[in-house]
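Quarterly update from the structural biology core.
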Amino acid sequence: MITTVTLNPALDKLLETDALEVGKSNRMRLLSVSAAGKGIDVAKVLRDLHKEVEATGFLGGDVADIFVRCFQEEGIGNSFVAIEGSTRTNIQLFEKNGTRTELLENGPTVTEAECTLLMDRFRSLAEKSDAVTICGSVPQGVSNDYFRELLRTARKACNFVIADTSGEWLSIAVEEKPDLIKPNRDEMTDLMGKEEATDEEIIVFGQQLVGKGVPYVLVSLGGEGAMLICKDGVWRGKAPEIEVKSTLGCGDTMVASLSVSLFEKRPPEYMLRHSIALSAANAMTFETAHVILEDYKKLIPLCDVVKLDVPALS
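Predicted structure, tokenized:
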């Protein structure tokens, strides 16, 4: 079983308009409303891959029922903790020219009692899990020490831990040495303490992280593909040209693939190739964090993955 943790889930509303006019009334077309959050999106994709998955985190307010129905329909185990605050709503606004604007709520403030209840529940889940993914942002009320304890609990209880977060939370995760982190380019350069970095600088820093005890560092590069850095070397890969309908959930789709690859003890080239293929399959649909398995299978051999000629870890 794989357990996904989403501390700050969101109801995602996808809207479309011809052109956004700031400061004026804008008529919108509703494209979809879905229960989301990075860990929940990982869980959805894992169910597409026919894997057993349990999802946990904080959930509250009027939108909670939408999440519960989603879990029932998707076949996702629901171990979320009910909170007094209201789960946030995020809006993704698409314009005809391809521009996407995001309106993101901060989310609720969770209480100490709610944090304690989640930790108790998570400890039990982790002991039953082969892998744990801890994904996304963190609501107010969750301290650095609490987040650190989540990672430590997962490390002690199960075989594999993946952390996909950003900012100070990613820094904390690195200190706790999960089996894999998956920053994008901006998150990686932020972790490096820089505004920009070349691919070569990212590779060197990734190798340093591996040397300090993070076995796998996957850096997603958007349309440029992704790089996987580990003790065996550095691989770079890219998907073939496809008709992109939406990139929402592509990173979460990669995490789902990587969690399965870690559990199955796959080699680095396989891990990267399959994660890129699954992410590309997600981009071919307008439904966030869902893939058509036939698309995925066709894309696997078409992904270009090469091992880079870089100095080995000392």
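The chain has a mean pLDDT of 93.
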